[in-house]
Specification:
By secondary structure, this protein is an alpha+beta fold. Helices cover about 25% and strands about 35% of the residues. The chain has two helices and eleven strands. The strands form three sheets. Strands 2-1-4-9-6-7 form a six-stranded mixed beta sheet. The longest helix is centred in the first third of the chain and has 32 residues. It is globular, with a radius of gyration of 24 Å. The N and C termini lie far apart (about 65 Å).
Length: about 160
């Protein structure tokens, strides 16, 4: 039996070693690339989300975000509560910000949306909740893309520090 193994081992050795090296490399890279939200004992998603409110317009139909500057901290779990008390529809559009976060979900009415979100439309009198983890620092331009709204002043900045 030992002789049989000795005679086959030299033939298998060149195949087994690269497979083991590749498997080890894949395992190590997976451990390095795993985000902090999945790290045991440091699960950000189990922490309560920090609630931040923003109003898209107001009852007087002013074309502004209230507040027009939002600040988030990288690595924290947030629930951005958006409301539109105005008589007009508005958009919360900030693709660069959306690319700098990990979206857990968006709740709007009786619908929960998951995946990449770049823009939210809020009709008059509606609310939405955007739950996310801020990841990439930067200053991101916010605007309402309804024609004429951004030009009339419905712009802002979202910052991740």
């Amino acid at each position: 039996m030992l002789k049989l193994l000795d005679s086959k081992f030299p033939k298998l050795f060149p195949l087994v070693v690269p497979v083991l090296l590749i498997a080890s490399l894949v395992w190590c890279l997976g451990a390095i690339a795993r985000p902090a939200i999945a790290a045991p004992g440091n699960n950000i998603l189990k922490q309560p989300a920090i609630e931040v409110n923003i109003s898209l317009g107001n009852e007087g139909n002013e074309l502004k975000f209230f507040p027009d500057r939002l600040k988030f901290e990288a690595g924290k779990h947030y629930k951005l509560v958006l409301s539109n008390p105005s008589p007009s529809k508005h958009y919360f559009t900030d693709k660069d910000f959306a690319d700098a976060i990990w979206t857990q979900k968006v709740d709007a009415g009786n619908v929960e949306v998951k995946g990449n979100i770049h823009e939210l439309e809020l009709r008059p009198g509606t609310k939405a909740e955007w739950v996310f983890v801020a990841i990439k620092p930067g200053n991101f331009p916010l605007r309402c893309t309804v024609p004429g709204h951004a030009e009339a002043g419905m712009r802002g900045v979202v910052a991740i520090e």
